[in-house]
């Protein structure tokens, strides 16, 4: 990650060269303001969890930034990749509905849609199903588009994209069947054969999880660009360690990902509240993370204590605010709407 003084210098040069405009930053500020007021009007409590934590979220595909001690050596503290664990501790303590709008940090990130440091909107509803989170996304994007453009639509690639109605809901398993002719689940042989038929050439050493993500990125996501606003629903439970399993189908969890103009914008799910199941799934995830990355991350004991105390039935979602600002302001990259 670039040091703060380097980021300030880079931003100054971008503003001086016209690569970033004050008008864009002012409109981004308006989007921040309206996002906060949207949730406050709905009775949510805004919280500001610590960003330096001793136990980060564990995800084999996400790398936390390790802080250094006074001697410059890696410490046992990390910059959080999400406020999820901190917010769930507050939920277990009786917070009710809450949201956080602030910075998160992830190492080894860098692309037109990724940065090591970015702004995340995360919120939780107590006693609500995952459908309520999707409705929140619909209502928020409509309101913000209206505030920026005076109409409930945005433009992308020269085409108008309406935000006035409900977003499409598509089962991910149906997308796999339609686009790959293969089941989404753990049939590694069938999924590998489907990828070969698509010309995607998976490696012989790739396990089912690798094959799933290759199919998702190379076959599913490209098809979403022409669909307008859409939620993909029902992800494999093996890939969502903190989501509740779907009733009647333990292999699927109540998780969704929302796409706008083909850009992944939001991820949400009904939360797993069973402390024993959650601990087992987190320990399995930590072991998988260590196998994939060579880095051992601790499972947060305070989070497990909070679950034992009692996490209420709830759903949560995390939205990439920089991507949302990029889409609302009709820009091509998050660098066009951020100080970086």
Write the layout of secondary structure elements.
Blueprint: H1 4-17, H2 22-41, E1 45-46, E2 52-53, E3 65-68, E4 74-79, H3 84-92, E5 98-105, E6 117-126, H4 130-149, E7 153-156, E8 159-162, E9 168-171, H5 172-180, H6 188-197, H7 208-223, E10 230-236, E11 245-246, E12 249-260, E13 263-270, H8 275-293, H9 301-310, E14 314-320, H10 321-328
Parallel strand pairs: 1-5, 9-10
Antiparallel strand pairs: 2-4, 3-4, 5-6, 6-14, 7-8, 10-12, 11-12, 12-13, 13-14
What structural keywords apply?
alpha+beta, BirA Bifunctional Protein, domain 2, 3-stranded antiparallel beta sheet, globular
Overall geometry comes to globular
CATH superfamily: Bira Bifunctional Protein, Domain 2
CATH class: Alpha Beta
Radius of gyration based on Cα positions: 20 Å
Provide mean pLDDT, rounded.
92
What is the CA-CA span between the terminal residues?
10 Å
The total strand number stands at: 14
Largest β-sheet summary: 9 strands, mixed
Q: Ranges with pLDDT <50 over ≥5 residues?
A: none
């Amino acid at each position: 990650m670039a040091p703060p003084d380097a980021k300030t210098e880079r931003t100054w040069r971008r503003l001086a060269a016209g690569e970033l405009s004050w008008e864009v930053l002012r409109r981004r500020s308006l989007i921040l303001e309206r996002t906060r007021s949207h949730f406050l009007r709905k009775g949510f409590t805004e919280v500001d969890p610590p960003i330096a934590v001793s136990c980060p979220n564990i995800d084999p595909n996400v790398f936390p930034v390790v802080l250094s001690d006074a001697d410059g050596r890696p410490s046992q503290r990390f910059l959080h990749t999400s406020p999820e664990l901190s917010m769930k501790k507050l939920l277990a303590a009786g917070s009710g509905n809450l949201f956080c709008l602030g910075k998160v940090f992830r190492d080894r990130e860098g692309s037109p849609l990724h940065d090591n440091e970015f702004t995340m909107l995360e919120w939780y509803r107590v006693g609500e199903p995952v459908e309520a989170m999707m409705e929140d996304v619909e209502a928020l994007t409509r309101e913000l588009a209206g505030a920026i453009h005076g109409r409930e639509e945005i433009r992308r690639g020269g085409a108008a994209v309406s935000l006035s109605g409900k977003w499409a809901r598509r089962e991910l398993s149906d997308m796999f069947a339609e686009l790959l002719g293969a089941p989404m689940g753990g049939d590694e042989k069938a999924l590998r054969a489907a990828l070969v038929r698509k010309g995607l050439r998976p490696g012989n050493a790739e396990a089912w999880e690798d094959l799933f993500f290759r199919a998702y990125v190379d076959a599913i996501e490209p098809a979403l660009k022409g669909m307008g606003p859409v939620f993909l629903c029902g992800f494999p439970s093996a890939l969502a360690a903190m989501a509740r399993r779907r009733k009647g189908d333990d292999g699927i969890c109540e998780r969704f990902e929302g796409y706008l103009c083909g850009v992944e914008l939001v991820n949400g799910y009904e939360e797993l509240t069973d402390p024993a199941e959650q601990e087992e799934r987190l320990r399995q995830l930590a072991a998988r993370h260590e196998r994939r990355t060579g880095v051992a991350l601790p499972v947060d004991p305070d989070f497990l204590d909070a679950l034992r105390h009692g996490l209420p039935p709830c759903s949560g979602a995390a939205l990439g605010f920089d991507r949302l600002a990029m889409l609302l302001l009709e820009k091509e990259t998050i660098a066009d709407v951020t100080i970086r």
